[in-house]
């Protein structure tokens, strides 16, 4: 996925594709979690769970964000942002206020939801909250058995409840999901009930890779991974 391009290319791109969305409503679920409802023309956009929209966050930088909710008829799209550190994406998103207009690209990416898999397990961190929110209605509507595991900073430990998510377990973001032995002792592996489930692992690359390795050694279900960020790497 593109994270940066020369300024002149970006200017040319946006001269043809002018701002197409306006910030309609803004709320902070926590100091780090900002939810923005945008309104614009979504009629030609093809949304899939896990697809990402590109937002230009500086003259040369672009970042990918997944919709938590959308309504094509009303032209509404909700995006949940993780505001943290001094990254250019976080800095830009933190400045957006009601009434601001931006360009949001059509979504694209990897399909991560298979309606034919009865059991669904989703793992991630703060960057996963939007995808998790988009997952939930489909999991309930199609009568899946499902679980969410989240690794979150302390100040975000209540955001899953505030966002209305269900069947979730929140773990502190203390490096545990980079410890294979610790992962092996999770309740998930204490029963054969989830052995053939579908697993979706998204968020921090190191956590995703370690969790995937343990799952491959213990489970037979399909594993889908998507790294959203990695320490020291810009614009993953």
Automatic annotation (TrEMBL):
PROSITE patterns linked: FAD_FR
InterPro entries reported in the protein's UniProt record: Cbr1-like_FAD-bd_dom, FAD-bd_FR_type, Riboflavin_synthase-like_b-brl, SIP_fam
Location of the FAD-binding FR-type domain: 16-114
Tree of life domain: Bacteria
SUPFAM superfamilies: Riboflavin synthase domain-like
Pfam families cross-referenced by the UniProt entry: FAD_binding_6
Annotated protein name in UniProt: FAD-binding oxidoreductase
High-level lineage: Bacteria, Pseudomonadati, Bacteroidota, Cytophagia, Cytophagales
